[in-house]
């Protein structure tokens, strides 16, 4: 579902798409994922014209432990939504 990843420094955008060939935006899924992450106490947002780009802006005190926590929570949220 990842169409593109872009960013600068710790500011990262992950574009979610329904079809990688046509790059049709996965707006609904992005919203569901943001809400599931919020339910699990991880705050990110969806941005862009189609609201399908995960906007990841970690706080300044962000280290390996926080990155691991984010990735584990993201993985669990994706598994939950795709079940």
- Strand fraction band? 25-35%
Q: Please provide the ordered H/E string of secondary-structure elements.
A: EEEHEEH
Radius of gyration using CA atoms only: 13 Å
Number of DSSP-assigned strands: 5
Query: What is the typical, i.e. mean, pLDDT?
Result: 94
Biggest sheet architecture: 5 strands, antiparallel
The DSSP helix count reads 2
Alpha-carbon distance between the two ends:
15 Å
Low-pLDDT stretches are none
Counting helices, strands and paired strands, the structural category is alpha+beta
The protein's oligomeric status is single chain
Proportion in helices: 25-40%
Q: What would the principal axes of the Cα set say about the shape?
A: globular
Task: Describe, in plain words, how this protein is organized in 3D.
By secondary structure, the chain is an alpha+beta fold. It is built from two helices and five strands; from the N terminus they run βββαββα. α1 (27-39) crosses α2. The protein is globular.
Highlighted features:
83 residues; alpha+beta; five-stranded antiparallel beta sheet; 5 strands
